[in-house]
Amino acid sequence: MHILIYASPDWLMPSGFSPNKNDRISFVSGSLADMADMVVVRNPDVLLVAGFPDAPPLLAQLDRVCQQLGQTAVLPVCVSPEPEFLLRLMQIGVREVLPVDPMHWNGALDRARARTSQNGAVHKRASLKIGFISAKGGDGSTSLAVNMAAALAKDAASKVLLIDLSMPFGDADVYLTSKPVDHDLADFCKEVSRLDDALLASMVTQISSNLHFMASPTSFEKIMGIDPAHVEQLLTFAATQYSFVLIDMGSSVAPVTLRLWEQLDQAVIVSSVSMPSLRRLNQIRQLWENLGLSVAKLNFAMNRLSGKPDMELAQFERIYPQKPLRKLPADVLGMKASVVQGTALVDMQPRSDYARAVSAWAAEWQGQPMKDKSLWQRLRKK
After folding, report:
1. What is the pTM of this model?
2. How many CB atoms lie within 10 A of CB 320?
3. DSSP bridge pairs for 125
């Protein structure tokens, strides 16, 4: 069972908590405002929340989590909650409240473990919408979006849709298939008012049984006819049909993409190790913040790393120490072969360093156990 502990930065894990040896413990320290954005993407079996006052802001964040992770047991640690506060917790879907003393947590965790076993550990949640943005043209958002989609689709329980919104003239299709694409994004937008699950299924390009694709328009006339409101409506509907909706947004900051930023659950800014790319990455981040969007949703990926020390990379890690930097190794020959064969690299060469890095990241978004250093040690280090 995956237990995620989300706590305020000044909260210290008290002694006396003894989880089951088969449990996987994750610990995330952050602000209350970022909690839902940080938690939903990890999709835990149990969410333990500690270090925040019993107040309406906590209720609002817990309500968001309960709505998006319907099968997750949400267990807030409360010092001395008022009856009205407890009633509101029950109304939003919180079944139990934990006392401060961790010696009394095991009963609630055992009950959550039993429910997880009965449900077959299958989590029904809102679709996770992930946007991929290139800092500059050619930095690799398309290759990452394609391979992430393919990696997520390796789990038979995940239904994945990849939308090529890199306009004009996106080319995600060349990484995915060698067959012609019958319908593109403009066709979907034209039919958006009458879309249902059957029509959507008949129009998408099926790469595999659980990986579907919407191509970018191939003519400038069709691109000019796309209404941003229709794209927004299309994404909202697609989110009801898929576990993951991935959008390759390319490097252009246009009205269509800007309207979708607010809908994203996660955004990945892909950069190469060059000063122009890093400068553009910083400009996109500033624009994101100026629009009032949550920084907790941002992810940074550094593409085509050679493994050699780099001054720009070190500078980036100093500027953004609060965000883990995803490092994607260079694989020029593999990417060329992927385009020639029309097959994602994670499918064609799953043991390559690039495929392993992307697959590990995909597993985190799916809430699957990762072979990594023990996070439980982080809980106890103080």
Report:
1. 0.78
2. 16
3. 69
Give residue 320's pLDDT: 61
Question: CA nearest 39: which of 49, 24, 54?
Answer: 49
Residue with tokens 């939003």: 92
Q: What is the CA radius of gyration of the chain?
A: 22
Label residues 33-60 b or e (16+ Cβ within 10 Å = b): ebbbbbbbbbbbbbbbbbbbebeeebbe
Let me know: does 249 contact 269? Beta carbons within 8 Å: no
Q: What is the DSSP code string of 212-268?
A: EEEBPPSSHHHHHT--HHHHHHHHHHHTTT-SEEEEEEES---HHHHHHHTT-SEEE
What is the spatial distance between Cα 218 and Cα 214, in angstroms, rounded to a whole number? 12
Contact (Cβ atoms closer than 8 angstroms) between residue 26 and residue 38: no
Q: How many CB atoms lie within 10 A of CB 360?
A: 15
Long-range contacts of 378-381 (CB under 8 A, 24+ apart): 378/27, 379/5, 379/13, 379/17, 379/25, 379/27, 380/13
**Three-state SS for 129?**
strand
Please name the residue that has the structure tokens 């490097």: 251
Q: How far apart are CA 180 and CA 125, in angstroms?
A: 33
pLDDT tens for each residue of 309-354: 566 667 666 666 556 688 899 999 999 999 999 999 999 999 999 9
The SS3 of residue 136 is coil
In the sheet with 205-208, reading across from the earlier edge strand, the strands are 205-208, 211-214, 160-164, 244-250, 128-134, 266-272, 298-305, 325-329
Q: Which residues in the chain come in under a pLDDT of 50? A: 121-123, 369-378, 380-382
Q: Quick one: tokens of 137?
A: 């043209």
